[in-house]
Every structure is written in C-alpha cells, then in structure tokens.
Amino acid sequence: MSEAWKAEVNTGERFKFGENWRRFLNSLTPERISVAEESLKEMLGANSLEGRTFLDIGSGSGLFSLAAQRLGAKVTSFDFDAESVKCTEYLKEHYGSKSDWIVKQGSVLDREFLDSLKASYRDWE
Length: 125
Known about the structure:
Elements: H1 4-10, H2 17-25, H3 30-44, E1 53-57, H4 63-70, E2 74-79, H5 82-95, E3 101-105, H6 111-124
Parallel strand pairs: 1-2, 2-3
Helix pairs in contact: 2-5, 3-4
C-alpha cells in the first residue's frame, strides 16, 4: 500500500476531526451515553457484549468505545487524529474501566500499526 497518507498529514491536508469531538464532549450527558449504548445494542442485535472484543477504528470521541465497554466488551480504540485520541482517552479515564480498554493513535492505512494490534488481542485470549 502506498504511504501517500503520510504526505497528506505532513502537508496538513487532513481535516482535524478531533477539534469537533472535543466540543462534542462538552455537551456529553449520561443520557447521551445511554442512547449510544442502546444504539450499539440495536445495531449489533445483542444486549450484552460480555466475553467479546470490540475494535473501534476511527474512534472519534470514543463514545461507542465507551458504550461497548459498558456492555461488557474488551475494547481497543484507535484514531489517526491526536485530538480524537485525547477525547477517547478522556472518556476512558472518566467513565470507563481502564483495564479492559486500550486507546492508541494510529492509521488504518498503516500496515505495521494494524499488525501491532494483534498483540492486544492475544493478551486477552
């Protein structure tokens, strides 16, 4: 795979989604967290994620990672945008369980990074 994405980043061509997510977190309420949990349950057709793992690619605010963890999943979240990663880390620190939730910065276009995620899941097996 081409590493053209690195050039985009170096030239500042990528939109900085994390700034939007930071503003979103300022209006986060317990009700919004509950809505995310219900949405995830409906989308996955499951009331519980106990014993499952959840990979949140492009985690953004981290809200669905939080919802998955609250439903019992072991979660790995990652985003390319550093501010998005900070938002996800904030939710982990303030609302989640630190032991079953890994937050990383990386790109889905970076093969080495994706390969490194395998270790996270092996640790949970």
